Each structure stands twice: as C-alpha cells, then as structure tokens.
Amino acid sequence: MSENREPHVAKFVYDFTEGNKDLKDLLGGKGANLAEMTNLGLPVPPGFTITTEACKVYLDSGEEPAALRDEVSAHLDALEQRMGKKLGQANDPLLVSVRSGAKFSMPGMMDTVLNIGLSDASVQGLAQQAGDDRFAWDSYRRLIQMFGKTVLGVDGDLFEEALEKAKETKGVAVDTELAAADLKKLVTTFKKIVKKEAGRDFPQDPREQMDLAIKAVFDSWNGDRAKLYRRQERIPHDLGTAVNVCSMVFGNLGPDSGTGVAFTRDPASGHQGVYGDYLQNAQGEDVVAGIRNTVPLADLERIDKKSYDQLMQIMETLENHYKDLCDIEFTIERGRLWMLQTRVGKRTAGAAFRIATQLVDQGLIDETEALQRVTGAQLAQLMFPRFDEAAKAGQVARGIAASPGAAVGKAVFDSYTAVKWSRSGEKVILVRRETNPDDLDGMIAAEGILTSRGGKTSHAAVVARGMGKTCVCGAEELEVDTKRRRMTVPGGHVVEEGDVISIDGSSGKVYLGEVPVVPSPVVEYFEGRMHPGADDADELVEAVHRMMAFADRKRRLRVRANADNAEDALRARRFGAQGIGLCRTEHMFLGDRRELVERLILADTEAEREASLKALLPLQKKDFVELFEAMDGLPVTIRLLDPPLHEFLPDITELSVRVALAESRQEPHENELRLLQAVHRLHEQNPMLGLRGVRLGLVIPGLFTMQVRAIAEAAAERKAAKGDPRAEIMIPLVGTVQELEIVRDEADQVVAEVEAATGTSLKLAIGTMIELPRAALTAGQIAEAAEFFSFGTNDLTQTVWGFSRDDVEASFFTAYLEKGIFGVSPFETIDKDGVGSLVKAAAEAGRRTRPDLKLGVCGEHGGDPESVHFFHEVGLDYVSCSPFRIPVARLEAGRAATQSTGSDHR
C-alpha cells in the first residue's frame, strides 16, 4: 500500500512555521496547533512535525517512507542552525522531545519521549551549560526511564521501583530531594535495567535515539490502550498519528522553573476564571502523572507574576482565536514562558452546555455553531440522578471535583479486578493513588474513579471527563495501598476491597457506604418541576433550556415516543414528544388479561373465540381512549399484536411439572392439560421468525379486526368528547404486499362499520413496519397499500445480520468489540452500510410509489445520537424512542440539521 500512497504526498515533514490549525488531518491536533500558535507569534519552542501520512505508510508497509529520513535530516539541520547547537553534542547539546499527536485528542494513550540527545558525553555539557549538575542527571535518568519503557518495551515498574529504592536509601519522600550524586547512581542502575531487560545498551547516538523514538510513536498508534480508547471514543482506526519533534525547554531547572496545564475556563463547570495546575521544578509528565501534588494555577501569580501575567494574556488570545475553551500546556524555564501545546479542551457535560451559551452571549459563535458544541450523549449524562444533599452520609474525605456525577460501587484497587467484577454485574469504583494509561480498561468498566494524587489535569481527570465518568482526584487524606487492596480514611477506618463507597464528582466528596440519589435538575426541568433561574443548578437548566430551544427551531425531524400507556404518554409529552411512534399492544395483554388470551388460544369453536374477543374489545378500547386523551391532537401509531402467541402461555417446563404432579395425585387437571397441548402445538424452534405479527392476524380470525375496532371506537368516542384523536394503525412483520392488502381490506371494512354506527368520520392511516429485508427490498410494492412506513430497526438488524439479539450480546459481542469487528454494537448505533442501506433504499422506493409516504423509525436507534443523524440524512420524517431519550433525540435532530463538517469538539 505504501507504493500507492507515497507518490501523492508532496512532503512528509513540516516546520512549525509552515502549518496551521486547519491541517489536523495531516499534522495531527498537536502539530497543527503548535503551528497556529507559532503563526500567532506566541512563544513556541522551534520544531517540526512528521505527518500522519508518513505514519500510514509505516503502518501499511512496516517501513518508513523512503524520503522520510532525508526530510527529517534537513529539518533537523535547520533547527540546529536556528538554535545554534547540535543534537546531543558534547558541549551545550540541543535536546528534543518526540511526542505523538493524532487528529483527535487521545490523552496519554500514545507515546512521548523527552530529553532526546542526552548521553554519557552530553550530560556533562548540559550540566555545564545549565550550571546545575542535579538538573542534568535528573533529565538523563528521565530519558532512560521513558525511552526504556516506551521504545525498548522495558517494564516501567522496574524503573519506578529503583527510583523508590533510591529515595528510601536517601531517606527522602520526593524525587526533587535526590542530589546529583544520587541521580547519577540512578542513571547507572537504569542503564543496567535496560541492558538486562532489552538485551542491548541504552543508545548513546542521539540520532539513533530520535529515529527509534519516532518509530515507537508510530507503533503506539496500534498499542492496546490506544485501540481501546479509539473504540471507546469512536475514533477511526485508519487516521494514524503525527510525530512532533520539538526543541526542549526545561521546567526542572530549579524553583524559578516549572510546568503546568491551564484552562481558559473551568472544564468541570464551564465557569470563567483561572483554572489549572502548576508544579515548580518539574517536567510536563510530572503534572499529568499526578506523582506530585500540584498547586492551583492562581498561585503562579505569587510565584512568578511576570510569567503569570503573560500566560493570562496568551490564554485570552487563544480563547478568542479558537472561540472555545482551550486546554494549554506550558513550561517556565528560569522565568521565561514557553507554550508547548493548546487544543480545544475536553469538558464535562454541564460545562459544555454552559460554555456554548456563554460564547453565544459573548458574540464569539452563533446558535448554529453552539449546537455543534454540545451532544445528545452529554445531555443524557446530565439527566442521571445525583446524591441527595439531605441524606446523612458518612463523608470521610474530599478531593478535587474532576468530573461530575454520583457514583456508587464496591472499591477495587486495580483495573483487572474492576473489569472482572463489572462483567459479573457488580458496580465498582476504581481506587488508585494515580491512574496511568494502562488503567484504561478499569476506568471504562468502573462507575467512577477515585485517586489520592493528582489534580484536574491529571490523567485520571482528563480521561474521565472525556468518557463522561465520575471522578474525584487528589483526595490526599486517603492512604491507598494497592498491594494490600485497601485504603485508610481519616480516623483510621480501613476500606477493604469490596466495601461500598460513594463519590461525588461535582463536589469532590468521598463517602463510606451507599448514598441515596435524587433526580437530576435537568430531568425536573423536562418534567416541568424546575424553571430556569439564578443558582448553579438553575444556571445549568437555563443553558439546557436555551440549547433545546435552538435545536427545536432548527430541526426538521419530528420526535415521537415509544409509549404503551397513558402515564408514559403524558411523561413523553412533557419531555417534548410530538406524538407516539410506537404503541406495543402486546403489553396491554399482560396481567389480569392473560387469562382472556389463554381462552382465545384454547378456543375450539368459533363461538368460544368470539366470546374471548368480545371480552377483550372493551379493555382494548379503554386503553386507546386513554392514549388518545393523553396525546390529543398528536399522532398515535398503534402496532397490532406482534409477538408469538406462546409468549402468553405458561412456561412449558413449569406447566409439564404441574400436569405431572396433578396426574400423580389424581387431581383435576383438564385446563392445565389443554394449556400444555397448546404450548406444544405453538412451540417453535425460532419463534422470532415464526407465527407472529401479520401472520397471526391472518391465521387467528378476528384478532386484528378486534384491535382495529377498538381503535376506531376509541377514536369515535374521543371525537364525540370534542377531542382530536389521530390514530395510525401499523401492521407488523409484513414481508409482501399481499399480506398487507388482506389485512388492510379487513381493517377498512371495520372502520367503515364504526363510522356508520357512530356517525363519525374517521381518518385512520394504515401503514406497516419495515423490519424484514424482503420488505425493504420490495418497499415500492408495499407502498401501494401503505400510507406510512415505520422502520423497526431492532428486528431489521437481527434479520439482516442473522443475529438473535438476546443470545449474541451475551455470547460473542464482547469479543467482536474487543477485536474491532464492531466499533459499537449494531443494536446500539445503526449499521449504516448494511441495515442503513436497506432503510435508505426502502425510503426511496416507497416514495417513488407514494410521494407523500410518511417515514419514521421506532427501533431503539431512534434515540441514539449517531443514528438520528443518519435518519435525518436519508429523509425520514420522524424518529421514535423511549420517553427518557426524547430530549436527546430532539437535540441531535437539531444538530443534524445544522451539521458543520468543520466542527469537532470531542
């Protein structure tokens, strides 16, 4: 594949002065934004970016592009001339970092190596140039540690253990207290670890270090944690990563140096202010790793006011330029500020809504762009419950509120246990001193994450915010002992693995035991119990209210509800439903009515069958009257009975035991025997593909006509009461137009009879579900007898894929997701290439036959954000989903109508 790719590429390496923020596909997010900051005249250390195209060639062929080495050499020469020093030279060496940078932010998922160019020879030159032996040997040990783990595949714990042993020997608590002599010994120890574990010496040639690091970054694109993160975030696997080679600036040169991360607004709340973390005498990975607790960014004003003022000015410049929350990494080297990275920052769901409306009010973006800054998934997060503040909870600690939400679960102390227990149905909280990229599996599996170290910019915080997971970081009062699988809270109480704890990502509070939860204020708003106001909760409600109003004004798709009773219908209407897209009548036959259905199934004569249907008719009519009243003036699509009749009968094993016991006791069992015979008669090997849907209506005389009569009479009664019923009758599981024609003729006759008897004109639309591949392929014919199509994408997915959903999700879907066969379950998000192509083709064919054909979808995909966009694109008229997902569908329908390919705020 490399032969096909290389001729189309002009070059593989770009200087920071050559790119801009719009070249993310080619330069990755980090490289594009470093170039943009350079263009803005901000203090960016000089460097260059190796493109994602070079990475793709390498990943395709296993070899770097032929031209890459010469291009890197040319850019390195230019960098050396600009800096006035050479890579790794013995006196005053140039050092560089090699950092990954994909199009979409993947924090901590790929590799970085700092201090490249240091060797046994150049470390002395660095010490002399800096006037600081300790700094030079600290930088060298960091290089060997990072290079050994990242490039040579040495177990990182071996370096950590050696570092801990050095501190114990010295009798100090943190690595900054190790002297130059201690670090020099540590370098020797680290080199021995590399030799033993990697089978080679640590490379002393600086160019070899750089070339191997570049390859390691390319390889990290296909690392396990990177692939897992991409699946979780639905990032395409074929993008590749760019590599940024940047001249080093040093934050570990003493107290007048340091490194930090800053946000132009609070990523947790969206509020404006000074947010971020700073760490004196440190390099960048120290902040995100959480190995030393940082100070708030505001403290930098006291530590170094000149740098602080300059940083505040740059942050304002960047936010106004990007017109969004910016996440910034910076280093101060002996009082001089350097910008190492900026990107549109990850944020919590609440922050996303607040920031979008703030930026509209500031005139930085318009409503259309604001809709692209929020997502249905974020709205769904805001609808989850929160802790009851009135509850008498046992708070034991408080950390940093890193990612909001109320999470309750059993404490676990490693990712393996979190995944294992989660798969067994347990809710868990992952507790760590600090997380690292290897903990991603456990973070995904957990309800929430709790760490005793780190701040809002630590690995745990950044990844949790991106995933929408509850997270509390830096709870310093907790003593976390991962080896003994326990933590000690203030007062000496020990929390063992398996003990239940609760964490509040909005306040940072940690509780023992399970804390009760209360409804979200956003749900209370949708329910009409809360109105926009002034306090913090109401401020969020105000932001949600405004974004929903934007979406409702912009969207073309209407949103209906899947609802089977008046209570659900009323709730759906409060949530903004514009009708019912699916009323499943089989749910009306449960409970006390099951006996009537049993009589219908057991009927031996027409008279018995008629008696059963006559008893069911008024009950069905009452159901429909209540639905029409709840949805007065809005369409109500009623699906006639769909599931196999045996589902209304007792379990075959249970019934067999009852009959056998009755026979052994010589007790009367005639009814049970008749039931057992009926169960055997109706038993099917694959009932989902058997006697159900329209087939029932054709072989059980009077069943569908009874339901149609109940609908028609209910509509007539509501009309007589001055109501406005808008009933639509949906025939399920149609595979051929002839089935629909027969049922429709019978339904039309019944409706005419009711009209004549009541003197009421009824306009009842009759349509069908498209849930079989044959129906989709013959949609043009079926449209001759149907006034509307509703795509039943749950069954359509089953029949297209040949999956039995109840079986496959539990058996092999996990393996398919892990192996990347699925990016996401096709039952969660519509399979556009397979199921979606049938939906598109059926919609087009149906409208060619009947241009005014109404098109909707009533499977669970109707409330899935990504699927809603697809349904908008193929021209459906509405989506239907559960009441709780209606706001999500409304928001996404608005976003779909205003979709901008230039917007991306992952």
TrEMBL record:
Cofactor(s) named in the record: Mg(2+)
The EC number(s) this enzyme carries: 2.7.9.1
Binding residues for Mg(2+): 771, 795
Domain PEP-utilising enzyme C-terminal: 542-894
Transmembrane spans: none
Domain of life according to the entry: Bacteria
Protein name (database record): Pyruvate, phosphate dikinase
Record's keyword annotation contains Nucleotide-binding: yes
Entry binding sites for substrate: 584, 639, 771, 792-795
Keyword terms, alphabetized: ATP-binding, Kinase, Magnesium, Metal-binding, Nucleotide-binding, Pyruvate, Transferase
Ranges of residues in domain PEP-utilising enzyme mobile: 426-508
Family stated for the protein in its record: Belongs to the PEP-utilizing enzyme family.
Signal sequence bounds: none
InterPro entries registered for this protein in UniProt: ATP_grasp_subdomain_1, PEP-util_enz_mobile_dom, PEP_util_AS, PEP_util_C, Phosphohistidine_dom_sf, PPDK_AMP/ATP-bd, Pyruvate_phosphate_dikinase, Pyrv/PenolPyrv_kinase-like_dom
